[in-house]
Structure formats: structure tokens, C-alpha cells
Design goal:
The structure holds 2 protein chains of 2 kinds. By secondary structure, chain A is of the alpha/beta class. Chain A has 3 helices and 8 strands, in the order E-H-E-E-E-H-E-H-E-E-E. In chain A, strand 7 and strand 8 form a beta hairpin. The chains are: A alpha/beta, B alpha+beta.
């Protein structure tokens, strides 16, 4: 992946609306879009139920594989791919944690939203490089 | 031998020249992964442990059924089945 990810207005609005909905618990979901020549274009941001254990959800998220499969099929039906993951850090930074790095997959884009009780404070994009994350430019979709 | 489709997630498409699905002939799920790896060397090591077990951070579905709820890698396949390779997705602030 090169150093840029673009967000469609629909995806950006969706993240603004959904990324803090579960505050103070972490929210999470899948990014649907296209990946061409190493550049990622996110068209939709789907919210998926956080299946981390009760009591862990303020600091952890987990997506159930069956929920993932349903989202992947939605993507396929729309001619899109699962191009990444988004999740929130309640009262935290818009940067991946060591837990995020340990569990991440290469070639996906990771959007991390810093949220508080008022909503999304900051949104940043990351991709895995070796054992750690590297920030990538987050740009509005030109169309 | 049934012909089935294996859906490849984005993180593993480096092994398949960016193909999002691959067609294989196999009688069971483990056989399908073996045939997939013969055509795209290296991909099985991301799905299976060196001992040949399914990795904890990967799930395989046949249709809508997680093979962990079926017979694991011995789960039988039927003509036209779709196997989805699903990376585990998790993380968090701490």
C-alpha cells in the first residue's frame, strides 16, 4: 500500500456518526472500497457489533467472523472489497496500540478514531509495515 | 472430486497475484488448502500451523458455516461450495 487512503463523503459521514456511538465502549467495523495500484479508496464504513468480552469493551474490540462474512458478502455484491478496519479509542489517541499492532494484518488500511462523549475528535489512517504501523495520508475523495 | 471456490481476503492476495478467488478441486477443506498452496506457494503457512492445524487467528467458512463447528479441516465439500478465508479482527486501546 502506498501512503494514501481516500474517504468517500458517505464513508466519512458514516464514521463521524458511528465511531462514537458506543462510547465509552470501543466501536468497530469494516471499510469497504477498492484497492488499486496500492492506493485505497474507502467507499463505505460499516459498523459491526463489538464482540469483545463484557467488561473489556472499553479497551478492546473483536469482530465475529460470521459478522465479517456478512460484510464481505455485502462488499462483493456491491463490487467492492474489504479494504480495512476501523475502530475507536474512547478518551484515547487516534493511533494504534501495541495490541492493535500485534493483531493486525498487512495490506489492510486501519482507521483509528479518537472519541470522547461529544463524538469523534480525530481520525487517522495507518497500515502495517513489518512489525509496526506507519501512518498514511487520509484524504477526502476527489469525486 | 468437487470443484469449489476459495475466497481470498485482501491480506493474503499477495500470494494469489491479487486474485480475490481461486477455484480448486478437493474433497475436504484441508485438501482445498493443500491444492490452493500448490498453485500459490506460501499461502497455507498463513492459514495452518506447522503441525497442519488451523491457526487461531484465521477462520474458514464453508458457505455460512464455520468449519470449527463442523469437522474442521476434514469438513467435506460439495460441488459449488464456497470456502471463505476470514482473518481474525481484533485490537484495542490497551
Amino acid at each position: 500500500m502506498s501512503g494514501q487512503v481516500t474517504l468517500s463523503p458517505e464513508a466519512r459521514d458514516g464514521l463521524r456518526r458511528r465511531a462514537g456511538r458506543g462510547y465509552p465502549q470501543e466501536d468497530c467495523g469494516l471499510l469497504l472500497g477498492r484497492r488499486e495500484a496500492g492506493r485505497v479508496e474507502v467507499r463505505r464504513a460499516l459498523r459491526v457489533r463489538n464482540r469483545a468480552g463484557t467488561g473489556e469493551r472499553t479497551r478492546r474490540y473483536r469482530i465475529d467472523p460470521a459478522d465479517y462474512l456478512r460484510c464481505e458478502r455485502r462488499a462483493q455484491a456491491a463490487g467492492l472489497d474489504v479494504v480495512g478496519i476501523w475502530h475507536s479509542h474512547p478518551d484515547g489517541e487516534a493511533a494504534p496500540s501495541r495490541t492493535d499492532a500485534r493483531l493486525a494484518w498487512a495490506r489492510w488500511c486501519y482507521l483509528v478514531a479518537a472519541v470522547d462523549r461529544r463524538g469523534v475528535r480525530e481520525l487517522r489512517a495507518w497500515t502495517l509495515r513489518g512489525a509496526g504501523f506507519r501512518e498514511i495520508t487520509l484524504a477526502p475523495c476527489p469525486r | 472430486m468437487p470443484t469449489v471456490t476459495v475466497r481470498i481476503p485482501t491480506p493474503l492476495r499477495g500470494f494469489t497475484a491479487e486474485a480475490d478467488e481461486v477455484t480448486v478441486d478437493a474433497a475436504d477443506v484441508g485438501g482445498a488448502i493443500h491444492v490452493l498452496n500448490a498453485a500459490h506457494p506460501g499461502i497455507a503457512a498463513r492459514i495452518l500451523t506447522p503441525e497442519g492445524e488451523l491457526r487461531p487467528y484465521v477462520n474458514l467458512f464453508v458457505g455460512t458455516h464455520n468449519v470449527r463447528d463442523l469437522d474442521g479441516l476434514a469438513s467435506a465439500l460439495r460441488e459449488g461450495d464456497v470456502i471463505a478465508i476470514i482473518p481474525a479482527v481484533a485490537g484495542g486501546a490497551r
